[in-house]
Amino acid sequence: MSHPFAPPARREFLRQVAGLTTAGAAALGCTWSAAATLENSPVPVIDCHVHVGTANQMIVPWNTIGDPEEILRNMRKGSIDRSVIFPMTNPNWYGSFELANREIVEICRRYPGKFIGFAKHDSVAEKGRIRDLLLREIVEFGLRGYKSHSPQPTLEVMETVAELKIPYLYHPRQVSDLVAVARDFPTVDMIMAHAGPYNRIASKSVESRLEAIEAAKTHANIYLETSRATETSLLEKALQEAGPAKLCFGSDAPDCDARLEAFKIRNAMASLNIPKEQQAMVLGGNLLRLVNKSGRQVVE
Amino acid sequence: MSVVDCHMLLGSGTGWWDLTHGGSWRPPIHGQTRVKFEVSQVLEACSRAGIDRACVVSPVNDSYEAANRLIAEACEKHPDKLIGIAAHSPYREEGRIAKLLTTEVRSMGLKAVRSEGHPSRELLDTAGELGIPLIYAPVLEPMQGPARMFYMLSEYYPDIPFILPHMNGYCPDYIAAMETIHHAKLLPNLYFDTSATMYVKYLERATRTVPIEKTLFGSCGPHLDARVAIETIRLLELPPEQEAKVKGGNILSLLKMAG
Fold first, then answer.
1. Between residues B25 and A84, which one has the greater pLDDT?
2. pLDDT at A207
3. Strands (DSSP E) along A110-177, which ranges?
4. Which of B171, B200, B224 is facing A257, going by the closest CB pair?
5. H or E element that contains A248
6. Angle CA(A276)–CA(A281)–CA(A284) in degrees, nearest 5?
């Protein structure tokens, strides 16, 4: 596999995902938290794309209800240790995600060691308030990253995300939108949801997925989240071309089934005989490394 | 239990994807050969996924006479592995379908027909006379719920089993999935296959609310990974007798074949 972002050596990789200290790992609630035994400890499997919580309007199932118990059930069955959760897309709690993010914080606290919370905001409706809200949500409440769909994030969002050193899981309208943001903010780690926009149906997304692979190869701060691949051969292509260091396992649960999404990426990696250590990076290590960059502890 | 995949592709054609351009989704361009699936690929996909037999059909083609002959020849060489499905375009092959399809079914052993485009009366009458299932994937914009295209077909041709591929959506598409469930409950002769849907929660709902005989396991291999399709069915956690029906019993029964 030839790609510009070679995976770190095993010791370096384990040091990075551990967030340097035992305390940091313990705060994350990981089952492998003892830094002293890292060499022999498994890296947790982390699903980095899960919608949880309750939206105000009941319109479509995928942005209305995400039941944490259902998520946990499929995590157990799919051998997934933790999930990154964030609010439903439906931004109808009085035009703000403030309450929805608080719900995420509450769910993280209710199930310690199971969830890593990301914040979400409407950069238009919440204009002018986002920095204050996000600072509080990350620093005080313990959320660990940012998630949004299109439209493009505003300067206010990006400057705050950069300041907080948190990863940004973004589902853009088109791949070039995310590339533009990644180019303007090279210190922000951008995770491309679904490894490229899926244009309502996955079969039409092949071209954008190919474009996303190119983007991940070209830009050091672009990563690909793996969910919703109908043509799973494209996961293999991403592994071969962008490399395991640039992929993060995600499911887009509860709309998609985390067990099946985990099977797809595990199956793709097994087909290519990807070494176990690199598989661990895709399944959780890469995400953990990005989240730990801020050096911040999570409150659970 | 014999595992039978009701939806695999064999042969060359224009297809819906352009394998010469990284597999991009592009509507068929007549005169261009863009996809090709060999018998060896089908057999390997079956072997890797634990599939005993596969129903094979030509990808989208300009003309189906030669493509169907290739299918029949492959089935003759691998009678314990492959089950042949004919394909026809009711409009490009108008006036010739009755003769072609009758020969393909009665002399060449093909077991069903896929209609490229909305089936015409000529195709429906012939399928009805031959007593074979008709496979039809309406091509509409996503989220439009193409299952409604079966209302009249089902009413006027109640003896033909209609099979809707991909549970109506070539990926997780909740409107397509919910409409498929709704229509499969409503129309007694509408069946659907599970290929490419990857929508476990709606398949679960279907198996709970629609007679189990209506769910047919399919993979859309070798284009898609049949192992993922098999895993999708496993995740439904069906009782063994129901799983056996979904994974082979139902399609064999529609094709009037022994297990």
1. A84
2. 80
3. 115-120, 145-149, 168-171
4. B200
5. strand A247-248
6. 115
| pLDDT value of position A80 | 98
Question: Helices A258-271 and A68-77, interaxial angle, to 10°?
Answer: 30
How far is A170 from A163, CA to CA, in rounded Å?
A: 17
Condensed to tens digits (0 to 9), the pLDDT of residues A194-211 reads: 988 765 554 456 788 889
Residue A32, pLDDT score = 32
Across the interface, whether the CB atoms of B169 and A257 are under 8 A apart is answered: no
**How long is chain B?**
259
**Average pLDDT for B157-171:** 90
- Work out the mean pLDDT of chain B and round it to a whole number: 91
CA–CA separation, A287 vs A282, rounded Å?
8
Sign of CA dihedral A200, A202, A208, A212: positive
pLDDT tens-digit profile of A201-252?
Answer: 544 567 888 899 999 999 999 999 999 888 889 999 999 999 999 999 999 9
Q: Which residues of B touch A256 (CB under 8 A)?
A: 172, 198-199
How many A/B residue pairs have CB atoms within 8 Å? Answer: 79
Among A6-10, A46-50, A64-68, B13-17, which is the least confidently predicted range?
A6-10
With CB atoms and an 8 Å threshold, state whether A232 touches B201: no
Residue at token pair 């070798």: B222
Instruction: Name every chain B residue with its beta carbon within 8 A of the beta carbon of A198.
Output: 171
A66-100: string of b/e by CB count within 10 Å (b at 16+)? Answer: bebeebeebbeebebbbbbbbbbbbbebeebbbeb
Q: Which H or E run includes B57?
A: strand B53-57
Beta bridge partner(s), residue A54: A65
B172 or B43, greater pLDDT: B43
Q: How far does A256 lie from chain B, in Å, by closest CA?
A: 6
**Distance in angstroms (rounded) separating the CA atoms of residues A233 and A228:** 12
- Minimal-distance CA residue of chain A relative to B197: A230
pTM of the model: 0.88
Higher pLDDT among residues A200 and B85, named by residue: B85
Which member of A205, A234, A257 has the closest CB to residue B235?
A257
Here the tokens at position A71 are 């998520």
A chain contacts of residue B171, beta-carbon cutoff 8 Å: 198, 201-203, 228, 230
Distance from C-alpha of B229 to C-alpha of A20, rounded to nearest angstrom: 41
The CA distance from A99 to the nearest CA of chain B, in Å, is 27
What pairs with residue A86 in β-bridges? A51
Instruction: Please indicate whether residue B104 or residue B29 has the higher confidence score (pLDDT).
Output: B104
Q: Which residues contact B211 (CB under 8 A, 6 or more apart)?
A: none
Residue A6: per-residue pLDDT: 43
Contact of B58 with B87, CB cutoff 8 Å: yes
For residue B112, what are the CA distances in angstroms to A54, A121, B90, B94, B154?
46, 52, 15, 18, 17
